[in-house]
Automatic annotation (TrEMBL):
Residues 73-156 form the AMP-binding enzyme C-terminal domain. This is ACS2L synthetase. GO terms for molecular function: acetate-CoA ligase activity. One of its GO terms (biological process) is acetyl-CoA biosynthetic process. The lineage of its organism: Eukaryota, Metazoa, Chordata, Craniata, Vertebrata. The gene is Acss1_0. GO terms for cellular component: mitochondrion. It comes from the Eukaryota. It holds the Pfam family AMP-binding_C.
Length: 156
């Protein structure tokens, strides 16, 4: 039962060997953090039985009033709400905090018992309260947005 950075000790076919026109950046990003290992950029949790669970990108963090917060950590909490199918958290420049947090989420295709137009303000307040309880008060997003689609990478 341990958490840490996911690093690979041996090369594999198709492994990146450089960044076009910036080999120094490749070395600094992937090979200098953990000498002798390739740093994937992902966090991982290993159970006592030897199973691995990816916990999210380690570089996807937001600094809010001096607190480092992983976006995946907030998304995981939000995705446990019955009205949320999936979510995304991003940071934006904030004059006072340094960075602010915006939450976008895709609602479940269910009847919430409040009619089809579940009050967005009510849901935003519920999500902010959930994040405040599960993580911390400073982790609650400044803005909550309902969306019909979240940006995806090719792999999903």
């Amino acid at each position: 039962n341990v958490s840490g950075a996911l690093c690979i000790s041996q090369a594999w076919p198709g492994m990146a060997r450089t960044i076009y026109n910036d080999h120094k950046r490749f070395l600094e990003t992937y090979l200098t953090s953990y000498p002798g290992f390739f740093f994937t950029g992902d966090g991982v949790y290993r159970t006592s039985e030897g199973y691995y669970q990816l916990t999210g990108r380690l570089d996807d963090t937001i600094s809010i009033s001096g607190h480092r917060l992983g976006t995946a950590e907030v998304e995981n909490v939000v995705n446990h709400h019955v009205a949320v199918a999936e979510s995304a958290v991003i940071g934006y420049p904030h004059e006072i905090k340094g960075e602010g947090k915006m939450l976008s989420f895709l609602p479940q295709n269910i009847s919430w018992g409040y009619g089809m137009h579940y009050a967005q303000e009510t849901l935003a307040a519920e999500l902010q309260e959930l994040i405040s309880k599960k993580i911390a008060k400073y982790a609650a997003p400044d803005y909550v947005q309902v969306t019909h689609r979240l940006p995806k990478t090719r792999s999903g």
